[in-house]
Fold each of these.
Amino acid sequence: MIELTTSKLKPWPIVFCLILVVPFAGCGEDEALDAFIPDFSYAFIDDNNVRFSNESEGEYQRLNWDFGNGRTESTTSKSQQFEVYYPEAGQYEVELVLIGLQGDRESTAQTVTISKTDFAMNFSATADAEDPNIIKLENTTVGTYDSFTWFYRHKEIEDEASTAAYFPYAGTYDIELQVVKDGETYSLVQSVSIAEDDPDYFSKFEQVWSDEFEGDVVDDENWTFETGASGWGNNELQNYTSGLNSVVEGGVLTITARKIDDNKQPGSYTSSRMITKDKHEFTYGKMEIRAKLPSGTGIWPAIWMLGTDIGSAGWPACGEIDVMEYVGYQPNTVHATIHMPAGYGSEGKGSSKTLDSAEEEFHVYGLIWTEKEMIFYTDSPENQTFRYAPANKTAENWPFDKPQFFILNVAVGGDWGGAQGVDNNIFPQSMEVDYVRVFQEK
């Protein structure tokens, strides 16, 4: 007998595998999703005006236009059209750059041909044969326009087709012509060189304004009284009144400081402070003030100027020009000083000189102020007190290319005027002013 031996077999588990087949997203398909093709068309409105339309395809986020004439535009609008003016005949390359969703860029360009000149800016600038400091200017702009203006140095000359530009100092200067046409302003700049300084520059000044202090009152068309006893930034002790301390008589203005009490505190004295702000303001020129000064310890008269932008720029950024200051404890010594961001307060730039009869006689306190330098003097320009002429002018060392206004005042005490106290026995004390005169280029 044959015996068969069997064993029990364990069943194997049946595993079903589900395989998900996902299409592979390759780089080419990403690019297909983000692809864009720049294109544009244009049509002439007239001979010099062209309308541009975007014809690009695909997805993108921004369009940057360069119309080849200096005008550029950037927009996210795909349908925005642009009308562009081409004043001069010529060929202009117009470029459209598209910026994609990922920041990538594509561009296209076309050449637009303008066959007719409608408006072309130009001017000539030639040296005068007899005066090398004069440049003859002529506006030779072609076409129609509304108005034009010349700009050079600190001058603005409107609507003069031919003019003479005067440059008193050697150097290289820009001359700009601005032309306004249909509400748009166009600009052209040329540079000219001047070989030498004009030795007769100062003789070409003429009087443009003065106050001779005629009549019997302070002229309110020339002056405004500043009032108050705030210390005026220098711990001064006087209260400035609205004219009670100023008298005009016999062709002379007299500003008088008076003692009210012996307390030597703010308000113990009265005086006047007169300004020409918003009435008479000047940039450059020769300024002359003829005056006789008060005396005594604690008195502080001043003839000076401040930048008209003091309200916005502040001090010392506005610039301060002290034509004459005098402190009574230093008799017969007059001071000329300027204040600016590069040096102000006790660090201001200036100098002093001895003037033996400052309290007994009238003297002229003068300033010649040009775009090159400042010259302070007494009685005549040859008798200089101080000269300031930085070679490289900046807003820090030369905020003096803007208008300034006059100030006449007599202070009492203060950081400088009262540095040695106040002698109450000296009052009243007066500064007398014969005239204030301003001369500028003809």
Note: Helices lie at 27-34, 310-313.
Amino acid sequence: MAEEFSTEVVKRFTGEIAYRLNKASALAATAQTLNSQGLAEHAFDTLMDIETLIFEATALLNAASIVNRSENEAQRTS
């Protein structure tokens, strides 16, 4: 039961991480386009939107890692 739960949690985290990183990548490409058009200030503003997405992706990765370690520890003690 716990293994099934942790597997589903990690799957969900993986999807959420991918979503945020894909969105961050799209924003980076937009910022690059803006910068190439001479709109450096708009490019910078766009890049600042990436910060939150990267922070959230990192937090989700840390949480997935904790779930995985907990599951591994539970298996060793069983």
Note: The CA atoms of residues 13 and 62 lie 10 Å apart.
Amino acid sequence: MIEGVYHPPHYTEGAIECIDAIEASMTPVAFKGFLKGNAMKYLWRYEKKGNANQDLQKAIWYLTKLEEYTVAEPRTP
């Protein structure tokens, strides 16, 4: 695991983690778009910032969260 990718301290201070507050503020469709957009952002720039592995790990984190969120969504007929 890369330091600063999974639950970094600057996002977990207080009673709620930042990602949970973001999810609570959005519709399910908007939150999925947020997750997808962040994964795309990290994939787009991973070769340009000097820490490719960290950006790839962050993209994986957002893709995993998107997958988990999508699987957990109630299905409508």
Note: The chain has a mean pLDDT of 86.
